[in-house]
Design a protein that fits this description.
heterodimer; A: 207 residues; alpha+beta; Immunoglobulin-like; 2 domains; three-stranded antiparallel beta sheet; 2 helices; 9 strands; B: 173 residues; five-stranded mixed beta sheet; 1 helix; 34% strand
Chain lengths: 207, 173
């Protein structure tokens, strides 16, 4: 009789332990689910936290004028045009009634008071040529179209380029170099590779 | 009679031992299952550690999936603000190179007055940081700051390309 009682007690104790494990396992699963829900909420969230990426713009990483040629007649404009694009590709939580993304542009070497965008000979920095920046395509440039850098730069951050408010907004522009600048040089003095760098600055501003 | 008593005693002893083993093993099993917070590190999503460059950095800004067109140019992350406390030696700021790019970035975080707070090593596409270590601490206030992204060719020489500045307000509480 006593033996039976002891066995019964032992079985009861074992079952009690087993049921405790089972409940705890269920709680663990529930917590895990809550965690997943939180992650989903984070991904779907539209308001960026401080330090998060709020928008993405696309800029030209390189603009290549290719081979430049010395025109025979310096009195006739000889333009070399290169197209480029700047766009607002992604935007997260921007209230376009109140805010816009303002983009400025400058030459990397530019100073307030100058208007130059330049390409410089890689082997001899004393040799450089200027180009103009337009915010329209070359087909839309007429005699009266003003380049962005028509006046001297008044702010160190650069020339105002464009205000973006809508995802997908895009500006197709043109860089124009007048090859008449090459006239008057002995071609052997100016041969070589040239490079210049543009800096695009963006910031959220009040609309 | 004595033999029977001894046999009974032995049986009881065996049963008690069995019960003890059962209880101990069940308890051990329960403890193993209930150990809190000991997740496997490799399963835990990397939250980013100050100064650690991740290989799977992402802007976390949803992409326009409707556009299947491969866009030319380089994607530059932009910011609204960042916050830290006075005396903090790190700043939560998601600095990185979107994985869609084909060029490298060298990112410099600085105040508009030129004070340099951080410069990254070369960030290849898909590499970035969640939080950056700072060269100096700042006192309370609002600062105009930028992340200067110098685009470079991935040619082993970091040949420079165009650059971008993403301006933001740095709030020090």
């Amino acid at each position: 009789m006593k033996t039976k009682k002891i066995i019964t007690l032992a079985l009861a104790a074992a079952m009690a332990c087993a049921s405790a494990v089972s409940v705890s396992a269920a709680q663990l699963t529930e917590t895990e689910n809550e965690g997943k829900t939180e992650v989903k909420a984070h991904i779907d969230g539209t308001t960026p936290e401080p330090g998060d990426v709020s928008y993405i713009i696309t800029i030209p990483d390189v603009v290549d004028f290719g081979n430049l040629t010395q025109p025979a007649d310096s009195s006739v404009n000889s333009y070399k045009d290169v197209s480029y694009s700047v766009s607002l590709d992604e935007v997260n939580g921007l209230d376009t009634d109140k805010n816009k993304i303002a983009v400025y542009v400058r030459d990397q070497t530019a100073k307030v008071g100058s208007d130059d965008f330049v390409i410089t000979n890689k082997a001899d920095s004393t040799k450089s040529f200027v180009y103009d920046v337009y915010d329209v395509t070359s087909e839309n440039i007429s005699e009266t179209t003003e380049s962005i850098n028509v006046n001297n730069m008044t702010k160190a951050i650069g020339y105002r380029f464009h205000d973006f408010t809508t995802q997908g907004d895009r500006v197709d522009g043109t860089l124009r170099l007048n090859q008449t600048q090459l006239c008057g040089y002995d071609i052997t003095d100016i041969i070589g590779d040239y490079s210049g760098y543009m800096v695009f600055r963006s910031r959220i501003e009040n609309a | 009679m004595s033999d029977k008593k001894n046999k009974n005693k032995k049986q009881k002893l065996i049963i008690v031992l069995l019960v003890l083993i059962l209880i101990i093993s069940t308890t051990a099993l329960a403890v193993l299952l209930l150990r809190p917070g000991e997740e496997q590190p490799e399963n835990k999503p990397a939250k980013g550690v100050v100064g650690t460059i991740k290989d799977d950095w992402d802007t976390d800004v949803s992409q326009d999936e409707a556009s299947g067109e491969q866009k030319k140019g380089t994607r530059i992350p932009g910011y609204s603000s960042a916050e830290m406390k006075e005396g903090d030696t790190s700043l939560k700021l998601r600095v990185g190179n979107p994985k869609e790019n084909t060029v490298g970035f060298i990112a410099t975080v600085r105040l508009d007055d030129g004070t340099e707070l951080y410069t990254s090593p070369l960030l290849k596409p898909g590499q970035g940081l969640e939080e950056i270590p700072l060269n100096k601490t700042l006192s309370k206030g609002k600062y105009d700051a930028v992340v200067y992204y110098q685009c470079v060719l991935l040619d082993g020489k970091n040949t420079p390309l165009n650059a971008a500045e993403s301006a933001f307000t740095l709030i020090v509480n």
